[in-house]
Specification:
The complex is a heterodimer of chains A (about 260) and B (about 90). Chain A has about 260 residues and is an alpha/beta fold. Chain A contains eleven helices and twelve strands.
Chain lengths: ~260, ~90
C-alpha cells in the first residue's frame, strides 16, 4: 500500500527525487508543526540529516495531539538514546542502514503499488552470518547468508553488499539474490499477491504443490508412503481432492500446514 | 554469477535488463525482465510470461523478440545454475 511521504529538512536532492510522490516537504523547522497536523496513519517520514533529530524530538514532545503516527526513515546513523525516544513515537524506525537505495530508486519503491515487496535498505550482521533487509514499509527481515545462498553453488560476498534493480535484487559481490525469492519463502502475504499476479492456469493446487516441492529440493518420490505417480497426478491436476492422509504426508515432508499446501 | 542477457544499447540506456540471478524462485524456470522497480517473469518451458501483472504488453516488443530468439542461451544458463530443476524437467512421471 502506498504511503504519504513527509520530508523534513531542506535536502534539495531528496526533494527533487521524491517529487513524483508529491511529498509534504518542510524545510524550515519553524514550520514543522504544520505538517504534524497531517497525522496520516500511513505516513513515511524521511529526515535526511541527523542534525534535525533533536528538533524533531522536541516537537514530538510538545505536539498538542501527541506524537505523529507512521514510519520514520533516517538515512544517517543516530544516537541510541534519541533513537529509543523516536521508536516510542513512530510505528517503525529505520536509521543509518549500511546500504540504502539511491533517492530516485527509493522514490520508485515508496511510490510502487506494493512497497513492502521491495528491499530499500540492508545491513550486514557479520558475527551472525546474516543480513537485515528492510522492506519498503520499513519492516525488517532477518536472512541468514545460508538462506540467501539457497542451493546455489555460487559464493555470496557480504562485504560487497548492495541493492539493485530498484530494490528487487540483493547484491553480494558477484552473487545476486532475487528479493522475491526470499519473500516467497517467508511471507504468506507476498505469496497471496504473487498468486494473484500469476496466470490463472498456474493457480491450481497441483501447481502450488509442485512449486513448493521444487523450492524444498524434493522429488516426487520423496514422500514416504506415497507413490511418485500419485504426486505427479496431483501436480498435473488429475487428482483434484487428495485424501486427508495424502495431504498430511505431503505437508509433513514439505514442512508446512496441510491447509497451506495450496498457497505457494 | 548472475546471467545477463545482452540487450541493444538503446534498451540498456532506457534501463531494461534481462537476467537470471543466482537465487531465484525455482518454479517455473524463468528469466526476469527488469525495469526500475518492476519485473516480468518469462517462462522458459512454454515461452510465455508467467504473470498477468504487470502486463507483458508493457515490455517492449523488441525484448519479446529477443527473449524468443535467445531462449536457447537462457535455457542453457538456467540449467547450469539450477540443475535440480532444469527447463526440460526431470521428474520421473
Amino acid at each position: 500500500m502506498r504511503t504519504e511521504v513527509i520530508l523534513l529538512g531542506g535536502d534539495g536532492r531528496a526533494a527533487a527525487a521524491l517529487r513524483p510522490l508529491h511529498p509534504a516537504v518542510c524545510g524550515d523547522p519553524r514550520r514543522w508543526e504544520e505538517v504534524f497536523g497531517r497525522r496520516a496513519m500511513e505516513s513515511t517520514w524521511i529526515v535526511p540529516s541527523g542534525s534535525l533529530l533533536p528538533g524533531l524530538l522536541r516537537l514530538i514532545e510538545e505536539a498538542p495531539l501527541g506524537p505523529p503516527r507512521g514510519r520514520l526513515l533516517l538515512p544517517e546513523p543516530a544516537d541510541p538514546g534519541l533513537l529509543a525516544a523516536l521508536a516510542a513515537a513512530f510505528d517503525r524506525v529505520l536509521a543509518g542502514p549500511e546500504v540504502l537505495l539511491g533517492w530516485e530508486d527509493l522514490a520508485g519503491a515508496l511510490g510502487s503499488r506494493d512497497p513492502e515487496d521491495l528491499c530499500i535498505a540492508a545491513r550486514r550482521l557479520p558475527r551472525h552470518g546474516a543480513l537485515v533487509l528492510w522492506r519498503g514499509d520499513l519492516r525488517p527481515m532477518l536472512v541468514s547468508l545460508e538462506d540467501a545462498r539457497g542451493r546455489s553453488p555460487g559464493r555470496p560476498d557480504p562485504r560487497r553488499l548492495g541493492l539493485d534493480d530498484g530494490g528487487q535484487t540483493i547484491v553480494l559481490g558477484d552473487f545476486e539474490v532475487a528479493f522475491d525469492a526470499l519473500l516467497y519463502e517467508r511471507d504468506p502475504g507476498f505469496r497471496r499477491r504473487a498468486r494473484r499476479r500469476m496466470h490463472s492456469a498456474d493457480r491450481t493446487f497441483g501447481g502450488s504443490l509442485r512449486r513448493l516441492r521444487l523450492q524444498r529440493g524434493l522429488r516426487q518420490g520423496d514422500f514416504p508412503g506415497l507413490a511418485a505417480k500419485t504426486v505427479a497426478r496431483i501436480e498435473r491436476g488429475e487428482i483434484l481432492r487428495p485424501q486427508a492422509r495424502t495431504l498430511a504426508v505431503l505437508a509433513s515432508a514439505l514442512g508446512v500446514a496441510a491447509e497451506d499446501l495450496g498457497g505457494y | 554469477m548472475p546471467f545477463h542477457l545482452e540487450l541493444p544499447e538503446a534498451l540498456r540506456l532506457q534501463g531494461w535488463k534481462v537476467k537470471i540471478r543466482d537465487r531465484e524462485r525455482l518454479e517455473q524456470p524463468h528469466a526476469t525482465v527488469l525495469h526500475g522497480c518492476r519485473a516480468w517473469r518469462f517462462g522458459l518451458r512454454d515461452r510465455r510470461f508467467l504473470d498477468d501483472s504487470p502486463h507483458p504488453r508493457e515490455v517492449p516488443e523488441e525484448i519479446h523478440r529477443i527473449l524468443r530468439s535467445r531462449r536457447g542461451a537462457l535455457q542453457e544458463a538456467w540449467d547450469r545454475m539450477y540443475p535440480e530443476n532444469p527447463v526440460g524437467g526431470r521428474d520421473e512421471n
